[in-house]
Amino acid sequence: MAEPTPIRPRPASEVATWDYEADVVVAGYGIAGVSASVEAARAGAEVLVLERTSGWGGAASLAGGFIYLGGGTPLQKACGFEDSPENMKKFMMAALGPGADEEKITDYCHGSVEHYNWLVECGVPFKASFWSEPGWEPPFDDGLMYSGGENAAPFNEIATPAPRGHVPQMDGKRTGEKGGGYMLMKPLVEAAEKLGVRAEYDMRVQTLITDDTGRVVGIIAKQYGKEVAVRARRGVVLATGSFAYNDKMIQAYAPRLIGRPGAAIEEHDGRSILMAQALGADLAHMDATEVAFVCDPQLMVRGILVNGRGQRYVPEDTYSGRIGQMTLFHQDNQAFLIIDEAAYDEGAAATTATPFLRVQPKWVAETVEELESDMGLPAGALQSTVEVYNKHAADGVDPLLHKKSEWVKPIGSPVAALDLRGFTLGFTLGGLRTTLDSEVLHVSGEPIPGLFAAGRCTSGVCAGGYASGTSLGDGSFYGRRAGIAAAKQT
């Protein structure tokens, strides 16, 4: 077995031969990498992408394809919704904290419309139609959907609700491989190739190369097991994804995700973060994680979610990622969905993109008292919860957690419980601290010369919270900034 390459930076003086060379070298051919490549090439730079796998796409090509955009995009307007950068910022600051980077969110919100137009210019298609039903993603080719709980409590009181989940259009819509994320990546890669961007595949980046001034001037990688040196005449852009599949880093920074990684590809091993750390790079929000809750939202909105004590804890009509965080972080990963037969049948018959997430009931009873006993809950715990909920649901209101009235109905009989304990998984949101131009910052606060980064290896617009589309959104947005800034270097 080959010896592992040291993570410490390699002095350029020790590089005898440069195997590859370009003005801008991009590590990773996912959403951040392709966006950086397009903009660097447009700025006149010769661009080389180093991709670990045998083809482009990364986690983005397997994602649902949501790009979190707003502020009044043409798609929002075409679907009849008003939005502004200021309104978008109110929501993002509330939903993506605590500790959300206000400067970066302000920048992102004010640049959101232009970024949408850039995607369209690159050939990404969007259909001017809105999907209004609960779900992980639209089941058809609709282009707009609520993707972060904007229309649910408490956020619908903080900012005027506006859907910001922009989804590329595709025929024969499907979830997973060659889904919405593929329809985002494909035109961007084609745009990059038309601009002359080159790619080398099966390249595992190992460490950075620096000159005698400390400037980053290249990358050491392994291709088919052989070490190669890649020279970057202007700059290096790191875009290799999160550290969700690096067990050691998960244990150190985000232990709540131990044993439950949810990144789309296992290549998310944090290597770029470690490479930059070896140069003294600063980090931010390394404990922040997205947490998916793997139950179909069409069922969840029609019942009530209770914890291991039989108590409600989250509005069931909010973003499933928020439900996941509330369950894993605050309820010891204990959750049950209480739902009556009529509501379950209605939810099971509703249109969804994720029918495989429709969980079968574990317990069924004629009364809540019987169900409570079968579940092993303390006598009266679940009964009191349902009694309070039903009392107000008779009037179509939920004063406790403020679920929207359209989903508030008394729970009848027979009644069932879905066992959702442990139904969470996720990926990391923290990473390298960067400037608005995607320069990687040293712990001193100064940019590391020649080094840029974007995507999930950085700390982007998310801190404590998440909304679907923010990874592809800030990955592409700040990927562009990285490519432009790197191409400007001399």
Task: Give the helices and strands, then pairings.
Blueprint: E1 10-11, E2 20-27, H1 31-42, E3 47-50, E4 67-68, H2 74-78, H3 85-95, H4 102-110, H5 112-121, E5 130-131, E6 144-145, H6 155-158, E7 165-166, H7 180-194, E8 198-200, E9 203-210, E10 216-223, E11 226-238, H8 247-253, H9 271-277, E12 283-284, E13 289-293, H10 297-300, E14 304-306, H11 320-330, E15 336-340, H12 341-349, E16 363-365, H13 368-375, H14 381-393, E17 415-419, E18 424-428, E19 431-432, E20 439-441, E21 447-453, H15 470-488
Parallel strand pairs: 1-9, 2-3, 2-11, 3-8, 5-6, 11-21
Antiparallel strand pairs: 4-7, 6-7, 9-10, 10-11, 12-19, 13-18, 14-15, 15-17, 16-17, 20-21
Helix pairs in contact: 1-7, 1-15, 3-4
Key words describing this protein structure:
single chain, 490 residues, 15 helices
Could you characterize the architecture of this molecule?
The protein has 490 residues and is of the alpha/beta class. The chain is 29% helix and 19% strand. The chain contains 15 helices and 21 strands. It has helices at residues 31-42, 74-78, 85-95, 102-110, 112-121, 155-158, 180-194, 247-253, 271-277, 297-300, 320-330, 341-349, 368-375, 381-393, 470-488; strands spanning 10-11, 20-27, 47-50, 67-68, 130-131, 144-145, 165-166, 198-200, 203-210, 216-223, 226-238, 283-284, 289-293, 304-306, 336-340, 363-365, 415-419, 424-428, 431-432, 439-441, 447-453. Strands 1, 2, 3, 8, 9, 10, 11, 20 and 21 form a 9-stranded mixed sheet that branches. A hairpin with a 2-residue loop joins β10 and β11 (226-238). α1 packs parallel to α7 (180-194), α1 runs parallel beside α15 and α3 runs antiparallel to α4 (102-110). The longest helix has 19 residues, at 470-488. The chain starts with 9 loop residues before the first strand and ends with a helix. The relative contact order is 0.19. InterPro entries: FAD-dep_OxRdtase_2_FAD-bd, FAD-oxidoreductase_2, FAD/NAD-bd_sf, Succ_DH/fumarate_Rdtase_cat_sf. Keywords: FAD, Flavoprotein, Oxidoreductase. Residues 23-469 form the FAD-dependent oxidoreductase 2 FAD-binding domain. This is FAD-dependent oxidoreductase. It holds the Pfam family FAD_binding_2.
